[in-house]
Design a protein that fits this description.
heterotetramer; A mainly alpha; B mainly alpha; C alpha/beta; D alpha/beta; B: mainly alpha; 13 helices; globular; C: alpha/beta; Rossmann fold; six-stranded mixed beta sheet; five-stranded antiparallel beta sheet; 10 helices; 11 strands; 36% helix
């Protein structure tokens, strides 16, 4: 960054466009591609009712005669064609995938937000306040980290299922899923934020803020939080991929999204049953969508990590 | 050294008691044990009798102590679903899981570390770049999908390997092993790859980034300035310093292999404790869930303890810091 | 104590607990251990003057600075600032914001003393708002520009981020922030030790000029005898937390009483026939 | 004329960045005789450490040498410095805390270096290591200790022992005492100078401190923004600096012999330009109080030990007066 004292400073937009971040992005084809795929999938999921050919939850749109239609082939009874074929119940697979994507992304994003909220606040408090509170929070984090998050999620899922009355289980399933994944992924946020906070808190600008009498909360919120955003963003991206995979895994295992709101994992679970009998498309298309989503998010996360931490390149 | 050992052991015990507490809480408070055993339409006298027999009217700390005591004697109660003692259930299924986890861990560690070193040293090279990008696919592929794809390719399309089960097993005392029969070994291949692949990519990426971090440090620059050839810089100086942080995380990863086995076992219908657990979650079979948690917790605490001690053996700085105080 | 002293420190001490964890202590049978960072230090600074504390790393100079501004709590001793008690062992530190407003600090590192995510204008505005000095927005802006001007920066610099400035310029921003609350007393903790020599002279001159213009009183912390020589009206030499010698600069340098002071000066590299200040 | 120990001619180093290439060194030339102590002085970013790294072939990628040559006793070593590294040229870095491998004992690291370069059997190498430790003032019995068990000054002594172990002809010391306390600085510098003199090894001492230069070096080279601006015998340069930057640098260094607190220190206005915004012509001209019109357009030629238009013009004037 050059600096000559007499030119006017650039505007915010100019600054963003001129930043190394944007510069690097425009020169990373893989990152651009990944961002495009992620943006496309998000858009499709949000606009699902408008872009899906049929509503897979509408019983009226289902025709059992359409069952097991291969992709791009006329059904031998009804003569209808489906881009990605149909499943056992004659549901249009493309529509099912679009709606499944919606569930997967919703669960993924919400659980990342939950994990981020918990992790960032606990990390800030542990790092800045320190003492026994820090010890307590980090011990819990240590213990939780010893257990893989998928196991924690399953456990939380199982416990919540035990607490919720059986007739409400399906209805609450999505929220139980979000809580389970969110609660299982807060530790990386907390650890990173704590580590960054410990570094930032020793910096002299924080002491300068203490000197003018700012309270702890004000210093954490106004001074330290903006400085942990970079690493939090990277973790959030990586965690999004993890959460999407975790959701798919739980749903695949049958302990996630309910049959009434199938996610990509649920679709793959259904598809697996027909793999042996040759109906490959019921598994393949949801699987490819899931892989494309997870891979793109991971690619973005990887690129973000490299760009925000150039030493690691 | 003795002090550290004592402290680590004390910490491990504490964690175990905590895990037991969670496990107990699940056992005691999730759903009602009485209803689960007797059903909803039992009489009040039946219920009261059971409550008294199970000691559910004792103070909670007493119940907890009893729970821990029973657990120490391998008494985890009776499965709600199969009405078998949970301990027997676990004992019959544990060998399958441990064999699978062991083989996968071996694979993940050896291949992961080798590839990690390779991609760190050859950073910027074509092959290393290719491996790195491919590894991202490995991280993005859910374990269950890897399993399903392997089944599709090697069982359905090629018909080379079995798609489910453990094959034939041989009984060695209390241990039932599949490692000694051809069909057992063949059955192991696909699940082991499925379970190990994801861990391998993680370990590889970890080793790479740690090694790059070490290679950037001053003492590496100074080692080069002393005229040490690259081979010595990499293997005598960088590698050892890399393995210190890698040990911890690799240890954790190994622990998580046992838990990830849940997924693999479901895909391949592998008769291990993971499959047992997932069924328990599905049917809200609380005693099995709580026992599984206790089992996995003990395993993790054990691994952590070993990793910690290993760490102390490798790094003289930690050794001294612990002796001089200030740790914690 | 002379009447014109602005700051008076009496019997200031600070210990750090460096004991082993209790379990290790129990096993090894050793008791707790204390590290004495500052040991019974007393001095006073005349109004409008600069008092320098000089010493090597671990001599306790920064701990003293931090205790005086209230970032750290002394174990014993009293601190009186401008007639007010800032700390005494009975009532502890005062929470008086009017006192806090009078003392400010300039830190060592030009890189970590400014929040990288804040614009310079916001950095300078923060003390003004925190102490409620000026309530009206345009007056606040005017004050920020005045501060920038005072330290030799220009008005548009308020919209820039710290990383756009050189080390010397950042240290000027730090000084401007310290000035923002209209303090009477500034603790300068090694303010130039991270700067290049040619820039160090600029910052030292700026501090001197501000002292003249605003009648500021300085406590100047440094490890560099030569820097202290050109800055201080009085010098205290610290060794292992104790004040071993104190004198006017000329007398101290010409005839040091303590061998430690002599050693410090002998090991300060200088060039023959050197350019006098 | 005999071949000098080290000859650097027109050395330029470049760092390709996102949007531009930063020229970190521009045409540095100097000669070093055997046994000589040459000081490189300059402020941060002047390129003094880079010069050392370039000679050692240890430029951090993507930095690279774009022009010039480095010859050691008549052999080109730019491009293949690995062959002489350690054996013929040793190096000492600023921070003794991080220069040693924390996981291996100091004896281990010494023996490793000795065996590699001197082909000694293990026993002889061990004896040699003990002797080296003794020479730098460390009890040889402590060779089994790990780096963290030594103080900063002790560690820098160990680093010096490591650099001297293969009996190199040249030691490059990059700010070897900046991280140490003043009282220890003097000891370590004296030790380094004595050991090198005893072995007839030449030294390139990189520092930002004119005082260190004055007390330790035979000759001094002043760098500014990637260019050499002045070069000469230390005593001569300090007595009569010819470049306005050298003059300013010396004048602005606070001195123990200052007269009074009320005097204003001489200062150079502004600060050294960053590599991305180097001015045309003489890179010092925006801060120079005696700049001529040419200074902002034409880079001055390095002649008579200095690169300055003003000095050249005065020389010409004197020559004309004399003639």
């Amino acid at each position: 960054m050059t600096h000559s004292p007499h030119t006017a400073p650039p505007t915010r937009l100019q600054r963003v466009l001129a930043s190394d971040f944007v510069f690097d992005f425009t020169r990373a084809p893989l990152a651009i591609l990944a961002a495009a795929v992620v943006a496309f999938l998000f858009l499709v999921a949000i606009l699902a009712p408008a872009v899906a050919p049929t509503n897979p939850f509408d019983p009226a749109s289902l025709n059992l005669m359409n069952g097991f239609t291969p992709p791009m082939t006329d059904n031998m009874f009804t003569g209808e064609r489906f881009v990605m074929g149909t499943d056992d119940q004659g549901r249009d697979l493309l529509s099912a995938i679009i709606y499944g994507l919606r569930v997967s992304l919703f669960v993924g994003v919400m659980s990342v937000l939950l994990a981020m909220g918990i992790g960032v606040s606990l990390g800030l408090v542990a790092g800045y306040v320190g003492g026994w509170l820090d010890n307590l929070i980090m011990r819990i984090a240590d213990i939780q980290l010893t257990f893989p998050s998928i196991l924690i999620a399953m456990l939380i899922f199982g416990v919540l299922r035990g607490i919720i009355p059986p007739d409400l289980r399906d209805e609450m399933a999505i929220f139980v899923l979000i809580a389970a994944i969110g609660l299982s992924e807060w530790v990386p946020f907390a650890r990173t934020v704590r580590a960054t906070t410990l570094v930032e808190k020793e910096k002299e600008y924080v002491q300068a803020a203490r000197l003018i009498g700012l309270r702890r909360g004000q210093i954490m919120w106004r001074h330290i939080l903006p400085n942990v955003i970079g690493p939090v963003l990277v973790i959030a991206t990586i965690t999004l991929a993890l959460a999407i995979i975790a959701e798919a895994t739980l749903s695949f295992l049958g302990v996630g999204a309910p049959p009434t709101e199938p996610s990509l994992g649920t679709l793959i679970r259904i598809g697996q049953d027909y793999l042996f009998s040759g109906e490959w498309w019921i598994l393949t298309f949801p699987a490819v969508t899931l892989l494309a989503l997870a891979l793109s998010v991971n690619l973005l996360g990887d690129w973000l990590k490299d760009t925000l931490n150039p030493r690691l390149r | 050294m003795l002090i550290i050992l004592a402290r680590r052991l004390a910490q491990a015990m504490l964690v175990l008691l905590l895990v037991a507490l969670i496990s107990f809480a699940i056992f005691r408070f999730v759903g009602s044990p009485v209803e689960n055993i007797l059903g909803q339409d039992a009489t009040v006298t039946d219920r009261n009798e059971l409550i008294a027999r199970m000691g559910l009217d004792d103070p909670i700390p007493v119940q907890y102590a009893r729970f821990v005591w029973k657990a120490l004697n391998f008494d985890f109660g009776i499965s709600y679903r199969t009405a078998e003692p949970v301990a027997d259930l676990i004992a019959s299924r544990l060998p399958a899981t441990l064999e699978l986890a062991f083989i996968s861990a071996l694979m993940a560690l050896s291949a992961g570390i080798l590839l990690g070193i390779f991609t760190a040293i050859k950073r910027g090279g074509f092959i290393a770049g290719f491996v790195m990008t491919t590894s991202l696919i490995g991280v993005s592929l859910p374990t269950f999908l890897i399993g399903v794809l392997l089944i599709w390719l090697f069982s359905v399309e090629l018909g080379w390997l079995p798609s489910f089960g453990r094959g034939d097993t041989v009984r060695l005392g209390f241990w039932e092993t599949g490692l000694l029969t051809v069909s057992g070994l063949k059955s192991l291949i696909l699940p082991a790859i499925t379970l190990g692949l994801y861990q391998m990519t993680l370990i590889m990426r970890l080793v790479r980034s740690e090694m790059l971090e070490v290679l950037r440090q001053d003492f590496i620059k100074f080692a080069r300035a002393r005229g040490l050839p690259e081979r010595m810089v990499h293997f005598r100086h960088a590698l050892r310093n890399t393995l210190v942080p890698v040990t911890t995380v690799a240890g954790l990863q190994l622990g998580s292999i046992v838990a990830f086995a849940i997924i693999t076992e479901t895909v391949f219908q592998w008769p291990g404790v993971g499959l047992m657990f997932i069924n328990a979650v599905y049917f809200v079979d609380i005693p099995v869930m709580s026992a599984y948690l206790l089992l996995v917790g003990t395993l993790f605490v054990l691994i952590n303890l070993i990793v910690d001690l290993l760490y102390l053996a490798i790094d003289p700085r930690i050794r001294d810091r612990n002796l001089r105080g200030g740790g914690g | 104590m002379p009447d014109d002293s602005y700051l008076t420190v009496t019997g200031l001490s600070r210990h750090f607990d460096i004991s082993e964890p209790w379990l290790a202590r129990l096993v090894s049978g050793r008791g707790g251990r204390l590290l004495t960072a500052v040991d019974d230090v007393s001095f006073s600074i005349a109004k409008g003057r600069t008092y320098a504390l000089v010493g090597e790393s671990g001599s306790g100079k920064s701990t003293i600075a931090r205790m005086i501004v209230g970032l750290e709590r002394p174990d014993s001793g009293t601190i009186r600032i401008d007639g007010q008690t800032a700390f005494d062992p009975v009532s502890g530190p005062t929470q008086d914001s009017s006192l806090r407003q009078k003392l400010q600090m300039v830190f060592q590192s030009p890189y970590s003393s400014l929040n990288p995510r804040w614009r310079v204008g916001d950095i300078l505005m923060e003390p003004i708002r925190a102490f409620g000095l000026i309530s009206e927005e345009t007056a606040q802006q005017r004050r920020v520009q005045e501060l920038l001007d005072q330290v030799g920066l220009s008005a548009p610099d308020a919209d820039r981020f710290p990383h756009e400035f050189s080390g010397g310029q950042r240290q000027r921003i730090s000084i401007a922030r310290a000035l923002a609350s209209n303090p009477h007393f500034i603790v300068c903790d090694e303010p130039t030790s991270a700067l290049d020599v040619s820039v160090q002279a600029q910052v030292l001159n700026l501090l001197k000029q501000l002292q003249r213009d605003l009648q500021l009183t300085y406590l100047f912390i440094s490890h560099d005898m030569a820097v202290v020589r050109v800055m201080a009206h009085r010098i205290g030499v610290l060794k292992d937390g104790r004040l071993v010698e104190e004198n006017e600069p000329g007398a101290l340098i010409e005839s040091p009483r303590e061998p430690y002071t002599r050693m410090l000066m002998d090991s300060t590299p200088r060039f023959a026939g050197g350019m006098a200040g | 004329m005999t071949t000098p120990l080290l000859h650097v001619d027109g050395l330029s180093v470049e760092f390709p960045q996102r949007r531009q290439r930063l020229q970190a060194l521009d045409g540095i030339s100097f000669t070093l005789e055997a046994g000589e102590v040459l000081g490189f002085v300059g402020e941060s970013g002047a390129g003094k450490s880079l010069t050392g790294a370039a000679i050692m072939g240890l430029l951090e990628p993507p930095g690279r040498i774009t022009a010039g040559s480095i010859t050691l006793e008549g052999r080109r070593i730019d491009g293949n410095a690995a062959g002489v590294r350690g054996r013929e040229i040793g190096m000492i870095f600023q921070d003794p805390l991080t220069s040693l491998n924390p996981l291996r004992t100091v004896g281990d690291q010494l023996v490793e270096t000795i065996q590699l370069h001197l082909n000694l059997p293990a026993e002889a190498a061990g004896a040699r290591a003990a002797q080296l430790l003794e020479e730098v003032g460390i009890d040889p019995a402590r060779r089994g200790a790990f780096p963290h068990e030594f103080s900063g000054g002790m560690r820098q002594r160990i680093v010096i022992a490591l650099a001297l172990a293969p009996e190199p002809k040249l030691i490059i010391a990059d700010e070897p005492t900046t991280a140490l306390d003043v009282s220890i600085q003097a000891q370590v510098l004296a030790l380094l100078r004595r050991l090198c003199k005893e072995r007839g090894a030449a030294v390139i001492l990189i520092t930002h401190d004119m005082g260190v230069i004055a007390e330790t070096t035979d000759r001094v080279a002043v760098l500014y923004a990637g260019r050499l601006v002045e070069d000469g015998l230390t005593a001569a340069v300090i007595a009569a600096p010819r470049h306005p930057y050298t003059r300013g640098l010396m004048a602005s260094t606070p001195n123990l012999d200052a007269v009074s607190v009320d005097t204003v220190l001489p200062q150079i206005p502004g600060s050294m330009p960053g590599l991305s915004a180097l001015p045309d012509g003489c890179r010092f001209h925006p801060r120079c109080d005696v700049a001529l019109p040419d200074c902002s357009r034409v880079a001055p030629v390095f002649a008579h030990g200095v690169a300055c238009h003003k000095f050249a013009a005065e020389q010409k004037g004197e020559a004309a007066d004399a003639g």
